[in-house]
């Protein structure tokens, strides 16, 4: 879902339709705005909609968690192409180094090793982002852990890893982002 920090609430289908004209109703009050295939070639135009135009993203700062590979990296590429300064985070230094090199634009990219399930890492991530680029306009909560299995056999540690990253990580990042965005007059949180 999408949330706008200056309104502190979820955007409804009508708002989303204005921002992302090609979004589709899911019939439950939310909209389907992206879908990735299994081949790793991720189309994020539905997620970002019209936001990728340079006129809208020039001078803007975006942070993409899990931005070193997959959908996160494709999102970072689209944001860069749209003119934004981009911070990517991930847990693995080697993946971040590779992603930063592939993204190029060293003056507009910052790669920060951080685990979004660790509050201290999130605070450091946002401090480094604002120190480097002076603020934040968009947060893409993309980092996720998926460990699938039958309920009867799924290990408790696997369950906790998913909850800590997929829920608590989103909470930590969103909580860190809102005051920064509010100080700049608002922003976007994309989950």
Protein traits:
9 strands; seven-stranded mixed beta sheet; alpha/beta; 191 residues; 7 helices; two-stranded antiparallel sheet; 42% helix; single chain; globular
Rg for CA atoms: 16 Å
Separation, N- and C-terminal Cα atoms: 5 Å
Number of strands: 9
Structural class: alpha/beta
Q: List segments where confidence is low: pLDDT < 50 over at least 5 consecutive residues.
A: 1-47, 50-55
Count of discrete alpha- or pi-helical segments spanning 4 or more residues: 7
Topology:
Layout: E1 2-4, E2 9-10, H1 13-19, E3 24-25, E4 31-32, H2 45-48, H3 54-57, E5 61-64, H4 70-81, E6 85-90, H5 93-103, E7 109-113, H6 119-133, E8 138-140, H7 156-183, E9 188-190
Parallel strand pairs: 5-6, 5-8, 6-7, 8-9
Antiparallel strand pairs: 1-2, 1-9, 3-4
Helix pairs in contact: 6-7
Structural description of this entry:
With 191 residues, the chain is α/β, with parallel strands linked by helices. Helices cover 42% and strands 16% of the residues. It has 7 helices and 9 strands; from the N terminus they run E-E-H-E-E-H-H-E-H-E-H-E-H-E-H-E. It has a 7-stranded mixed β-sheet, sandwiched between helices. Helix 6 runs parallel beside helix 7. It is globular, with a radius of gyration of 16 Å. The N terminus is likely disordered.
